[in-house]
Design goal:
Layout (H helix, E strand, L loop, with lengths): L2 H7 L4 H31 L5 H12 L7 H10 L9 H4 L12 H16 L7 H7 L1
Length: 134
């Protein structure tokens, strides 16, 4: 079947058919480039999450090149690049520091150290003096 007959059948012009074909090929090349970069990043640091990957690639390619966050997630799911979910048992494993018991002398020392830290003012030379020295 010729393109002209198919376009008449679906009430589209030939230009729309070829434009769609060009758009799809451009989109596939974008996706291929994104997936390649995701795989290289994951090789270097395998635990990088999807949102962080999206931010990194947005900084690399620019926001106009990258799809939205949800579309990016769908793309990763299609190519089986999503990380497995964290188990609830692993989420609960947090080290909780128990407060140490201090005697009166240690408490006074820590209070004085905090007070000295609050009163300490650090002064930085201004940028104009640094540029004048260069």
């Amino acid at each position: 079947m010729k393109v002209t007959h198919a376009c008449r059948l679906f009430s589209h012009c030939r230009q729309a058919f070829y434009q769609l074909k060009a758009d799809l090929s451009a989109e596939l090349s974008h996706e291929k480039l994104i997936i390649e970069n995701v795989r290289t990043i994951r090789r270097e640091s395998p635990g990088t999450g999807c949102y962080k990957l999206w931010l990194m690639l947005c900084a690399l390619f620019g926001p106009s090149f990258m799809p939205g966050r949800d579309s990016f997630y769908k793309l990763l799911r299609r190519h089986s690049l999503m990380l497995p979910p964290v188990s609830p048992a692993a989420r609960g494993r947090r080290i909780i520091m128990q407060p140490q018991k201090m005697d009166m002398q240690e408490m006074v020392y820590h209070c004085k150290a905090e007070q000295q830290a609050r009163n300490l003012h650090i002064r930085y030379p201004s940028l104009s003096t640094k540029t004048a020295q260069l």
